[in-house]
């Protein structure tokens, strides 16, 4: 696993936890209560800050270059705050921003997309590049969403649904290549 002394940082005595065969690029910063599942990967310049709430990343999920992962603090008005929960076989494109939202399994988040607090993305969804998902929206399974703010564009084709798993598998293979060079 590629981790330098500064990639994983404790916050209030809580240190990120990694599953088996996880790749973390040395330029990324993972802070606090972050749990990353088996065979997942975090690429250059990712910031994942689990300081005021938790971040959970599933298995075989890839978080691509320049992405920001953060959460919302627990409060009297919102006792659970907004944790960030990302499922299995998720591909998060370059420079995405995920803030206090929940993503199911087999999702593609397009480059530069923003998903805000309380949004829920069900399984088998594609979010087009540059899409803004406003707070508390629910994106139903099996659709393509695009735009600012997002709109449900159309049902996914079978080949697109198959691609969601293939995209995750491609990044598992790539991270294994990177790990083999360590």
Automatic annotation (TrEMBL):
SUPFAM superfamilies: Trimeric LpxA-like enzymes (SSF51161). CDD domains: LbH_gamma_CA_like. It comes from the Bacteria. InterPro entries: LbH_gamma_CA-like, Transf_Hexapept/Carb_Anhydrase, Trimer_LpxA-like_sf. This is Gamma carbonic anhydrase family protein. The lineage of its organism: Bacteria, Pseudomonadati, Pseudomonadota, Gammaproteobacteria, Alteromonadales.
């Amino acid at each position: 696993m590629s981790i330098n002394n500064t990639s994983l940082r404790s916050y209030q005595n809580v240190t990120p936890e990694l599953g088996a065969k996880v790749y973390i690029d040395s330029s990324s910063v993972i802070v606090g209560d972050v749990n990353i599942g088996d065979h997942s990967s975090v690429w250059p310049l990712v910031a994942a800050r689990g300081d005021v709430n938790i971040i959970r990343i599933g298995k075989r999920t890839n978080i691509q270059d320049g992405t920001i992962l953060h959460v919302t603090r627990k409060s009297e008005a919102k006792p659970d705050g907004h944790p960030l929960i990302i499922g299995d076989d998720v591909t998060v494109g370059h420079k995405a921003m995920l803030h206090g939202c929940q993503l199911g399994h087999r999702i593609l988040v397009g480059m530069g997309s923003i998903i805000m607090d309380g949004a829920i993305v069900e399984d088998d969804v594609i979010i087009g590049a540059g899409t803004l998902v406003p707070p508390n929206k629910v994106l139903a399974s099996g659709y393509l969403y695009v735009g600012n703010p997002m709109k449900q564009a159309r049902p996914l084709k079978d080949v697109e649904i198959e691609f969601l798993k293939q995209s995750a598998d491609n990044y598992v293979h790539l991270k294994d290549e990177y790990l083999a060079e360590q």
